[in-house]
Amino acid sequence: MLYSLLRPALFTLSPETAHRLAILALQLMPETAPPEHGGPLSTHVAGLDFANPVGLAAGFDKDGEAPDAAMAQGFGFAEIGSITPLAQSGNPRPRLFRLEEDRAVINRMGFNNHGAEAALARLVHRDRNKSNGVLGINIGANKDSPDRVADYALMAKLMAPHADYLAVNISSPNTPGLRELQGEGALGALLDAVLQGRNEADMQIAPPVFLKVAPDLTEDEIAAIARTAMDKKLGALIVANTTLDRPNLASRHAGEAGGLSGEPLKAKALDCLRAFRKTTGNQIPLIGVGGITTAEDAWERIRAGASLVQLYSAMIYEGPGIARTINAGLEELMRRDGFARIAEAVGTE
Predict the structure, then answer these.
(1) What is the number of alpha carbons within 13 Å of residue 22 lying toward its C-beta?
(2) Measured distance CA(256)–CA(340) in Å, rounded
(3) What's the pLDDT at 131?
(4) From the CB of residue 102, how many other CB atoms can be counted at a distance below 10 Å?
(5) Total tally of structural domains belonging to the chain
(6) Positions marked active-site
(7) DSSP H or E run through 231
(8) How crowded is residue 203: how many other Cβ atoms within 10 Å of its Cβ?
């Protein structure tokens, strides 16, 4: 209710200014405990215990400034990043656009972040005051890096001691050539380097590695990625990142370059999830993301094969209370359809 009153004022600001205010507002909110474990929405994925299946996707908290504050708003997990070895400013502004008529966002941010050193300073502090929420760290490569594979390996080594899981992001459309790493040969070599980097880190338990894929994949590409992910024993696949498609958009910003997210991505992301489920069976967990706004959207992904779901763009339009709203709706949908635990519903459509 409060956010619905504030939203008109926030939408008079530039998207990046409003985003910065959202991060600051989260940091200033009173400290509360993250969601409790043990309820019907609790689930176990990739060796990790999640209080509920609704996560905050990467892109909102690029520098790891407020993951625990986000989880205090009801998210079962939060994924920070993408973080690169060196700080980089990203693409020129304007680079973030609200498509209000379409309830969507186009971004061409370009992995803007303050780099690994700044993130590590926050993460070391968090380790001393750690909550029981699940933290994912999404790692990327610098745009001008002479060796992007080496960047990913370095980031895995640096971030592994502080992450509950690592997410490898090679699916952003806003870094030239990045999606080429999704090819089978290139992907295998990349994942070998990431896993080696992770294993070289100073830690007792190595976090699982997740891979975030694009929705703009052919059937053969999906099959190749699935084979590689299973061969490398990844913890999960995150399906899917933003799209380059422009499906019947009404906003004046529809022609902007960059990745499209939000409601118009829903059908394509769902189809991509179903394709990965068909290809992998239940051999690797899937995380559904893209166009999830309601409990019904989340339930549809779960029934289609997602063990967890993530959102970000919907929070721009609905506010941070969206996680609690979706979780409450999921409990009702579970009871309606006769499931006692959320994990029982995965892949039952």
Answers:
(1) 29
(2) 45
(3) 64
(4) 20
(5) 1
(6) 172
(7) helix 219-231
(8) 14
